[in-house]
Design goal:
The chain has helices at about 55-70, 85-95, 105-115, 125-130, 135-140, 165-170, 180-190, 205-220, 220-225, 235-250, 260-265, 265-275, 290-295, 335-345, 350-360, 375-390, 395-400, 400-405, 410-420, 425-440; strands spanning about 45-50, 75-80, 100-105, 120, 140-145, 145, 150-155, 160, 195, 280-285, 305-310, 320-330, 395. By secondary structure, the protein is α/β, with parallel strands linked by helices. Strands 1, 2, 3, 4, 7, 12 and 13 form a 7-stranded mixed β-sheet that branches. Strands 9-10-8-11 form a 4-stranded mixed β-sheet. Helix 1 (about 55-70) links the parallel strand 1 and strand 2. Keywords: Signal, Transport.
């Protein structure tokens, strides 16, 4: 599942705790001409599966049309919903595997590779990544020394979006500490508008809340260990972060509709409740991709909607939690060569420029000109994510096995939804998380 305007200095990476850090070239250079124009793939059809819906899907289809214009190949996009691994596994078993999958979790890339489902990316794609991406993004797509995934879309999940009108009415300004943010939240609530809209119906925003608190409060070293289950979820640092998050969840008056309302609010609605025509809250926390949802509401980012970096917790460093969506080629697809050509195209700055101009997108590709971002806010964010280089900590739940960190209705998503429903016992929630994590990592 999922960058910011003014990023704080990125946390230095002591080790990104990826499965592997080396990369290897693929077995074929299929697709080396994909971005060169012509009709070299006329008559081919590439089936692409991904989680995107709404504005994101519409924007990605513009990118796919760019591929068609460049190569002559047609494309067919299939939405998987959030349960990517389950849906793709079913399609492979049924002999209906797509050619390319846009995978939103590092853990799922690793799972697919370990299951033998993936085609190594070609040496042409490898060369593009080596030249135009920070090493961290190549590491994210590498499993046991082999490059399998191309990170096309990046995100910064350390941004808090707010209504300038709501802040002005309450007499508050963007905070620089978590404690001040909670104080301001109370002030906004006292002014007659709930402080936050929380997309609790979708479990993944809740994992992002936890991860930002944990990274800042417990530090990057513990973050890396927990991401790889090298420390247990019952560790005191986890209980402390859950306690901090639970103290917020307990305050029903700070949340639009209270906890019950949050559990019935999906991510797009959480944005609409702040920036729609009938606002119910002054802030919503999520990644830079909120800007696309704001624009779909016909509101202007930078005027009607602004954000501040997720603030430092308990004297720690401001967190920099990143995410991204990676393209992989399935070896059971019907047209692997055309699929590889699409991934080669996605590695080009031309492909990224299409979505950059549409909004709601940033690329980790440093060859994408900043002028391609028509939104000045996203232009600054894109520069920050590229400048951060190896300093981004990847979304923790996206690094976990899908059964724990990436599946609706189970694992971390479901457990944190239950915690939102009843935040009274952080230690018990930590134990439940540990039980689910231990099972998933053993599997």
């Amino acid at each position: 599942m999922r960058v910011r305007h003014t990023l704080p200095a990125a946390v230095a990476v002591a080790g990104l705790a990826m499965t592997a850090t080396a990369c290897g070239g693929g077995s074929s250079d299929s697709g080396s001409s994909a971005a060169k124009g012509g009709q070299s793939l006329k008559g081919h059809t590439v089936t692409v599966a991904g989680v995107w819906t709404g504005e994101e899907q519409a924007s990605f289809k513009k990118v796919l049309q760019g591929f068609t214009d460049a190569t002559g190949a047609k494309t067919d996009f299939v939405s998987t919903g959030d349960n990517v691994s389950t849906v793709i596994g079913t399609k492979i078993a049924g002999g209906d595997a797509p050619d390319v999958v846009m995978v939103p979790q590092v853990g799922v890339v690793q799972q697919f590779a370990s299951s033998g489902w993936l085609q190594p990316l070609s040496s042409a794609v490898d060369a593009e990544v080596t030249q135009n991406y920070a090493p961290v993004w190549k590491n994210y797509g590498t499993v046991k020394g082999q490059l399998y995934a191309l990170y096309f879309k990046a995100s910064d999940k350390s941004t808090v979006w707010y209504s300038p009108t709501a802040f002005a009415n309450a007499g508050v300004t963007p905070p620089t500490t978590y404690a001040q943010m909670m104080t301001d939240a109370k002030t906004i609530s006292d002014s007659g508008l709930a402080a936050f809209s929380v997309g609790g119906q979708d479990g993944w925003p809740l994992t992002d809340w936890f991860e930002n608190i944990y990274l800042s409060q417990a530090g990057p070293g513990n973050y890396d260990k927990l991401a790889q289950h090298q420390i247990k979820w019952t560790d005191p640092t986890v209980v402390k972060a859950l306690t901090t998050l639970g103290d917020f969840f307990k305050q029903d008056d700070l949340i639009a509709g209270g906890r019950k309302g949050a559990l019935a609010t999906d991510f797009p609605t959480s944005v609409e409740q702040v920036f729609g025509d009938s606002p119910k809250a002054g802030m919503t926390y999520e990644g830079d991709f909120v800007s696309g949802n704001v624009q779909s509401l016909h509101k202007k980012v930078g005027t009607d909607a602004k954000f501040f970096p997720f603030p430092a917790v308990d004297g720690g460093q401001p967190p920099v939690v990143g995410g991204g969506d990676a393209a992989v080629v399935l070896n059971k697809g019907k047209d692997k060569a055309a699929g590889m050509a699409l991934v080669k195209y996605l590695a080009s700055p031309q492909a990224a420029a299409i979505w950059a101009k549409a909004g709601g997108f940033i690329s980790p590709n440093k060859a994408v000109p900043l002028t391609d971002y028509t939104d000045p806010t996203l232009r600054e964010t894109a520069k920050s994510i590229v400048d951060a280089g190896n300093g981004v900590r990847f979304d923790m739940s996206d690094q976990a096995p899908a059964a724990f960190g990436g599946t609706a209705g189970t694992g971390e998503w479901k457990i944190l939804q239950d915690f939102l429903r009843d935040p009274s016992n952080p230690a018990k929630t930590a134990q439940t998380l540990e039980s689910a994590a231990a099972k998933a990592y053993q599997g």
